[in-house]
Amino acid sequence: MLDVLRSLKSLLKISRVHIDNNVFRLHYTVTVILLIAFCIIVTTKQFVGEPIECLHSSEVPESVINTFCWIHTTYTVPSAYGKEVGKDVPHPGIDSTQDASQFRYHRYYQWVCFTLFFQAALFYTPRWLWRMWEGGKIKALMMDLDIALCAEAEKKAKKKMLVDYLMSSLRQHDWYAARYFLCEAMAFANVVGQMFLMNRFFDGEFLSYGIEVIRYSEKDQETRTDPMIRIFPRVTKCRFYKYGSSGNVEMHDALCVLPLNVINEKIFIFLWFWFIILSVLTGLVLVFRVVITACPLVRVYLLNMRFRIVHLDNLHTVVRRGSIGDWFLVYMLGQNIDTMIFKEVLAEMAKRMTTEPKEAA
User: Fold this and answer.
1) Are the beta carbons of 326 and 140 closer than 8 angstroms?
2) pLDDT, tens digit, for every residue of 100-141?
């Protein structure tokens, strides 16, 4: 397990080449690490410890009851949550009713570790696609220009090569930018979709889970019912059937403790708030992408705010003569090469954009 955790640390390493933004990075670094870490915690408790322990008063071996109830699910009675514990019922959601139509079965707990791993894979998918589509373009164009300490002749030659490429491929990078924007949209669709996936996984309880927990903390202690115990019950019931000595089918009730749900409830309340925060941040990024696509002045403002050392007139020229794809490529290059070199590259681009048409005429 320690080897797996060490390998996850590589996702947190800051790469020398930046090909995305911080919000997009939250999806495939922080979120993936959290989900895999949670998966390891749940798996360790599930397969190393005792995920379920059942109390019963029959001659059936305890290990058989535990295994059966873990595999074939347990149940609670929703109507029993409103009853007083210790007086009307022994535990929240547990009473003596024999009406199976009132039972609520809990089938999710065997699948939590697999679901968390599947979620992690989905969160990494947009990053994998973008790396495949990006194809190392930014790294190739950098040409080690992120290191300012190099021979002047070498620096000059590399700057010329970079400007020549940017000028010769002007207005040809729109599809490059569109693919990145598509990956950001996929990241947003993924995190929102995962909220609904979890809601389906927990029988329609997940979407309102965080809100109910907040409301629970504000209610009077005498009347409130913990939503975490309702969704992740710590004590459930289980029915085991076998043949008796006379050949008749006998039913045996078991009271089962699920210590794993103490961990599950903490994991998923954290994920609920984290997914909400991530959805809002990614949604704002997508709105911002629409604005910068529609308004060139915003692109100029963003470049000026990020690279204040570059002359504003040069920024206006580069943005006005180029397309959204050119702006995106220039912005990404600015994050990866030396600031002074970037300033000189944009100055040369602006100069050639304003003089070459005149020379051609």
Assistant:
1) no
2) 888 888 888 888 889 999 999 999 999 999 999 999 999 999
**What is the secondary structure of 119-155 as a DSSP string?**
HHHHHHHHHHHHHHHHTTHHHHHHTTTT---S-HHHH
Could you tell me which of 99, 86, 37, 116 has the C-alpha nearest to residue 239? 99
Q: How far is CA 264 from CA 31, 225, 229, 261, in A?
A: 17, 18, 11, 5
Whole-angstrom CA distances from 237 to 91, 97, 106, 203 are 10, 11, 10, 18
SS3 85: strand
Distances from the Cα of 311 to the Cα of 147, 314, 317, 334, 346, angstroms: 22, 5, 10, 14, 9
Tokens 């309102």 belong to 208
Q: What is the pLDDT of residues 28-66, one digit of tens each?
A: 999 999 999 999 988 887 666 678 888 877 677 888 888
Contact 105, 73 (CB under 8 A): yes
Q: Which residues contact 38 (CB under 8 A, 6 or more apart)?
A: 116, 267, 271
Backbone φ, ψ for residue 206 (5° rounding): -80, -40
The helix, strand and coil proportions of the chain, stated in percent and rounded to the nearest 5, come to 65, 10, 25
Query: Across the chain, how many H-helices and E-strands are there?
Result: 15, 5
pLDDT in tens, 197-253: 999 888 888 888 888 888 877 766 555 667 788 888 888 888 888 877 777 787 888
